[in-house]
Amino acid sequence: MTPTEQRQRMRAILNGTKCLSPASVYDGLSARIAQDVGYTLGILSGSVSSNSTLASPDLIVLTLTEFADQIRRIMRASDISLLVDADHGYGNALNVMRTVIECEHAGVSAMSIEDPVLPLRFGQEKDELISTAEMVGKLKAAVAARKDPTTVIAGRTAALKVEGVEGTCARAKAYAACGVDCIFVVGVETVAQVKAVHEAAKLPIIVGSAPASIKREELEAAGARVLLQGHQALAAAVKVLREVYSHLYNGGAPADLKSKIASNEEMDKMTHNGEYKQWIKAFMH
Predict the structure, then answer these.
(1) Architecture in CATH for domain 3-236
(2) N or C end: fewer C-beta atoms under 10 angstroms in the chain?
(3) Domain ranges (residues) in the chain
């Protein structure tokens, strides 16, 4: 599947009637496993990227080059349509253009640019946002920088907790006027909030998270087409790795881990070992 085909599939999701949840992936193997399970949509968040690449918290210490390289490894190993959290675009509007170029070249289907003040400044107040005017400049730059018109640009806002529904709707309307393809909203607590933003922007909505009490059908009716569900996959990997390392370090037998680890057959399947054997036979004999 080509990058454009993957992007068209992403657009079909946004233009559809269902609200889907992506698999949270962090490397080529996790993306391939998600695809094997049945996922067609994945997400690489800034926090997961920083956690898995640098073993650091989500404080924007990851560089654009490191982020783009991680995207390339994911896309090389899978055919999922990948949504990435490109944070603040790694700087000003010019940096946003470079971010779009690099992420698009790496194979993403969609990327979000967000409006909090990032990285943290000395003495910065919590949840501070950049001005709507500055964000509009960033989003216009993002739209102008993409080479493939099927690449999805999402304007992401954290305004619900800072400026309330009215302020969020005003920002969403301004972001939509920049030519973005959808609005990514974090901090959602009610269906009414999603509906209000959708009606203001007249664009599909990506919901960063929502209370478990909200039904997916309610979000669909309110205009949501993507709902994030957290990043449990990396956290699960951390837990299992600790259990396995601790078991072996403390003298446990490798055989005792059989129920916790993938079989040789599963590892062969996920690493496409059969294909490599065919290539060895075809090209190295």
Answers:
(1) Alpha-Beta Barrel (3.20)
(2) C
(3) 3-236, 256-285
